[in-house]
Specification:
Helix content is 50%, strand content 0%. It is an all-alpha fold and 86 residues long. The longest helix has 15 residues. The radius of gyration is 18 Å and the shape is extended. The relative contact order is 0.16.
């Protein structure tokens, strides 16, 4: 995941989405076709300080990346599908 965000942040021509299953599955969301939200979970315990610092560093790196403007996508739903959702 770090490699992908680093490549996006540097605006490289090749983004290594196939480096992991996670980034491969997230490719449509990370390639400008959707909005991406980064949440970081931190622990208040002293024992978890190192993990929390690593998480904050990763979030800081991700925050520097600009994925592009989100595109709006609308799908038409017929009456039968709408009734099954309700």
């Amino acid at each position: 995941l770090t490699d992908v965000f680093a490549a996006i942040g540097k605006k490289q021509s090749h983004i290594p989405f196939r480096n992991s299953k996670l980034t491969y599955l997230l490719q449509p969301s990370l390639s400008g076709d959707g909005k991406t939200l980064m949440l970081v979970n931190l622990s208040p315990t002293e024992k978890s300080t190192q993990e929390s610092l690593c998480s904050l560093r990763f979030a800081s790196q991700v925050n520097k990346c600009e994925l592009g403007k989100a595109k709006r996508s609308l799908e038409e739903v017929d009456e039968e599908d709408a009734a099954s959702i309700s």
